[in-house]
């Protein structure tokens, strides 16, 4: 039997759910630690695995959700980025954190820096929604707006981080970040007495996927396939697989902006080639991803970004059955979906997506 947090078995007052009021209160909290904490004192939360009654009934298999949308800043990014910053503190001086981000990496860097008592500057491209800057300031981060696109913001962040004692925090491309992300699979293996038939995750630049692969190798899940999901217009992993090498997309045209890396990590492509565990890539439409976000909000009262909705679309779109028919998967009885979350979402944004995609 699985040791999970199942919504239909828990009293309502014990459900692991954060509403807007709870999030606002949490974001305005004072730092938990006044001095830098060693890497052993993790800043991320151990998130539950939830047995989804609605998704299990819909799909005909047991569906389990690893709820990393419940991390304090709203996404899985806190695992890897906090781990990176804490390792930097252990191994050397870290007086100031710099990060370029239009989304969740910046939220994670700001939160971790606040908890560790380190000044933090987040560089946002001009295309970033205004409400994100407000959220970052709740974490005491200095916010600068620079450049028309992410790459211009990244260049400034890297330049500023050359100052003595400063640390540049990338969004995904660093081994310490992957090492931190691996913790979610280690947790899931402890929460689940039986391994799932398949793990489903979104992939953008590849940091999450790299961490999942490393975690699965740690817990002995090497034979469990991963379905790695992108949206059309943010499908740099699919492009790299077809080319046999890392390639650059010309632009990100998908609504799933937080998947929006122009190129995938070379390590992700190498893991795909190693097939240990095997990785099956799949590309969904923006409408598929947004529709999954809307249905997930109805089913579980959680708001997630289309970057997360891409993974959920594998269940809602009954794509697993298609992969079995195509012999890319064998018969399966259960799936573990990584609910990576995302802070760039609100009820207003959900309504605008519904209007844009005629849902």
From TrEMBL:
Superkingdom in the source lineage: Eukaryota
Annotated catalysed reactions: L-serine = pyruvate + NH4(+)
EC category: lyase
Enzyme Commission (EC) number: 4.3.1.17
GO molecular function: L-serine ammonia-lyase activity; threonine deaminase activity
GO BP field: isoleucine biosynthetic process; L-serine catabolic process; L-threonine catabolic process
Tryptophan synthase beta chain-like PALP domain ranges (all copies): 44-341
Cofactors named for this entry: pyridoxal 5'-phosphate
Presence of the UniProt keyword Lyase in the record: yes
Family membership: Belongs to the serine/threonine dehydratase family.
Protein name: L-serine ammonia-lyase
Organism: Biomphalaria glabrata (Bloodfluke planorb)
Gene label: LOC106067982
